[in-house]
């Protein structure tokens, strides 16, 4: 966990990768490539403590909900006292609805295959359409696939 903490603390994604001996796939400096639920994602360090994750190659199912390359998925902040901990805003997407934000928190750590992973949890919104067809959050659930988010860094 130390290398991931250093990676987040220093705002330099390459630190964790250098310790693993690889480089990110097609990423620019300050960016790494991750996967989430069949989609390819891009993580960008906006500052030493701010992270944005957006869709690079959305999977077909999420594209049917209106997600396109470049659509934001997560806005995260690291904890300055423990940079392996993150919290922020994730988004649920539904066809014809604006992105629906919800709070998530979690940790970065080495995954079972040695690649860094990010695991985030938070109650995801339940959405219904009102009489006019607008999307309205009507509650939250911890039993949705959106309630636990698992991202894994991709290496060459």
What would you say this structure looks like, in words?
The chain is mainly beta and 156 residues long. The protein has one domain: Beta Barrel (Lipocalin), CATH 2.40.128. 12% of the residues lie in helices and 50% in strands. The protein is built from three helices and ten strands. The chain has helices spanning 2-9, 14-20, 60-63; strands at residues 31-36, 39-47, 50-57, 72-79, 82-92, 100-110, 116-121, 124-129, 135-141, 148-153. Strands 1-2-3-4-5-6-7-10 form an eight-stranded antiparallel beta barrel. Helix 1 (2-9) packs antiparallel against helix 2 (14-20). The radius of gyration is 16 Å and the shape is globular. The chain starts with a helix and ends with a strand.
Distance between the termini: 21 Å
**Gyration radius, rounded:** 16 Å
- Please name the CATH topology: Lipocalin
Can you count the helices?
3
The CATH C-level class name: Mainly Beta
Mean pLDDT: 82
Assembly form of the protein:
single chain
Q: Which descriptor suits the 3D outline?
A: globular
- SSE topology string: HHEEEHEEEEEEE
Domains (count) = 1
Number of DSSP-assigned strands: 10
Structural class: mainly beta
């Amino acid at each position: 966990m130390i290398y991931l903490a250093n990676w987040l603390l220093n705002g330099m994604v390459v630190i964790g990768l250098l310790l693993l001996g690889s480089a990110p796939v097609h990423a620019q400096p300050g960016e790494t490539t991750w996967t989430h639920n069949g989609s390819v994602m891009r993580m960008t360090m906006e500052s030493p403590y701010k992270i944005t994750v957006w869709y690079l190659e959305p999977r077909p199912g999420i594209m049917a909900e209106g997600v396109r390359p470049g659509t934001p998925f997560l806005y995260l902040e690291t904890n300055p006292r423990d940079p392996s901990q993150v919290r922020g805003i994730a988004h649920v997407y539904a066809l014809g609805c604006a992105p629906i934000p919800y709070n998530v928190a979690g940790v970065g750590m080495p995954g079972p295959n040695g690649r860094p992973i990010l695991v985030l949890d938070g109650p995801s919104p339940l959405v219904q359409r009102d009489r006019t067809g607008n999307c309205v959050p009507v509650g939250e659930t911890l039993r949705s696939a959106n309630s636990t988010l698992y991202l894994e860094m991709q290496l060459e």
